[in-house]
Design goal:
Largest sheet: 9 strands, mixed
Oligomer: single chain
Helix content: 25-40%
């Protein structure tokens, strides 16, 4: 089990940072960058740049990092060794991870000095591998507790229901007398999980938005639940409103990837980038008002992430905000991401972004309807479930036709999402949400 003092130290650091303005956060990041240099000197892919300014390091695309993890760690571990550790961890998690499996059972095989695991992936078969030592796992947990929960929540016993493709050492490490975790895998149908959730009666529920929507439609009620979070995939404003109506709690967004804990929604309902521990450069996306993130995690030494180009399409919310968020945290505010840069629609006469597609469809039909839109150069295909009422399908079709000024084919063949993460907006006819 992880040392509580390490988690507490991280929690205190993060709570202090949550009262800093933007200039103070920038000075903090500069100190963290200097402290990261010894790890960079021992990382084969980065050693040649050791001691330089961050801007002098090359920008790396995700596929380059994933081609050889041995080049991207400071531990001297080979690509094969890291992949083996991650495979062992996943096998152990699958073996010991039934519906509502509690932490505290068989030890995670990597729960000592180094933990490795696989991210849930995007459905394209190219999952990310993460590696962390005990201090980094403590730092992740301390940051998460500080960013997500009010102080008063830590003074009470909490039962956390966590929906992941597979459990991992981060949550095994977190168990203590006040915090209990139960892992609910995403592979079983939601109907099979409802009974286990009712038995566990979580005080905190964390799940991808599509799974929360399924629970809401099944009429799940959890009287003890006090905090509701969604992560792993985009959540729209219409979906958040529907979930709040069904559960009586507004879901708060967690922005996380295998590249790091990138952001979280504050108590004032604003999604802040984690500018206290992550350097996120915003690279403009041609033809749009948005950006893609270039990520440097200033707290990861075992597997340094330096100027890694992400694929999320981001838009700043700063123009809609006062100089300082009411929560007091100076981290930049973004709109909740709604899709990827790769799924921007580059039509012959216009560029249409995922937020524009989501807004058009869900302003017409709300957040409770499952849908997927796929754009080709001449037409758009809108997929809905077969049992959708005709007027709903027509409203969505007309909204997309107005947005794109192109014919929209309505296809009633959408079934369960086959990929770990759903994609509502897809570029290219013939693509799937996998």
């Amino acid at each position: 089990m992880m040392r509580p003092d390490l988690i507490l130290a991280s929690w205190l650091r993060t709570r202090r940072a949550m009262s800093m303005d933007a200039p103070a956060l920038a000075r903090r990041r500069a100190r963290q960058w200097r402290a990261l240099q010894p790890a960079l000197a021992k990382t084969p892919a980065l050693a040649a740049y050791h001691g330089l300014k961050l801007a002098d390091y090359p920008i790396t695309d995700t596929h380059e990092l994933r081609a050889d993890y041995g080049m991207w760690n400071s531990l001297g571990l080979s690509d094969a060794a890291l992949r083996s550790l991650a495979d062992e961890a996943e096998l152990s998690a699958q073996t010991n991870s039934g519906l509502g499996a509690k932490t505290g059972g068989p030890k995670h095989p990597n729960s000592g000095a180094i933990s490795a695991g696989w991210s849930s992936g995007s459905g394209g078969g190219n999952r990310g591998l993460f590696a962390a030592n005990m201090a980094e796992r403590a730092d992740y947990l301390g940051q998460s507790l500080a960013r997500l929960l009010p102080v008063r929540a830590l003074l009470r016993r909490q039962r956390i229901a966590l929906h992941l493709r597979a459990s991992n050492a981060l949550y095994e490490d977190a168990r203590n007398s006040r915090i209990s975790f139960a892992h609910f895998p995403l592979s079983p149908p939601p109907e099979a999980t409802v009974a286990a959730l009712k038995e566990w009666q979580p005080t905190i529920l964390i799940a991808p938005p599509h799974r929360l929507l399924q629970y809401a439609k099944l009429g799940l009620t959890l009287p003890d639940m006090r905090h509701l979070f969604c992560g792993s995939e985009p959540v729209s404003a219409a979906e958040s409103a529907f979930l709040e109506e069904q559960f009586g709690l507004r879901p708060r967004a967690i922005y996380q990837a295998s590249e790091g804990f990138l952001g979280a929604e504050c108590s004032a309902g604003q999604l802040h980038l984690n500018d206290h521990a992550i350097e996120i450069e915003l690279e403009p996306v041609r033809g749009t008002d948005g950006f893609r993130p270039i990520i440097t995690d200033l707290r990861r030494n075992s597997q340094p992430i330096v100027r890694l180009r992400g694929d999320d399409y981001l838009e700043l919310a700063s123009a809609k905000m006062p100089n300082m968020c009411p929560c007091g945290y100076g981290g930049r505010v973004i709109d909740p991401p709604q899709g990827r840069v790769a799924d921007i629609w580059h039509l012959p006469d216009r560029v249409i972004t995922p937020p524009q597609v989501v807004s058009a469809v869900e302003n017409a039909i709300g957040g409770a309807v499952d849908w997927q839109a796929i754009a080709g150069p001449d037409a758009v295909q809108l997929r809905l479930r077969p049992n959708i009422p005709g007027h709903v399908g027509e409203a969505a079709r007309q909204a997309l036709a107005t947005l794109t000024e192109r014919p929209v084919e309505l296809v009633l063949n959408l079934s369960d999402w086959p990929a770990p993460k759903r994609r509502k907006v897809v570029s290219g006819v013939g693509s799937t949400n996998a």
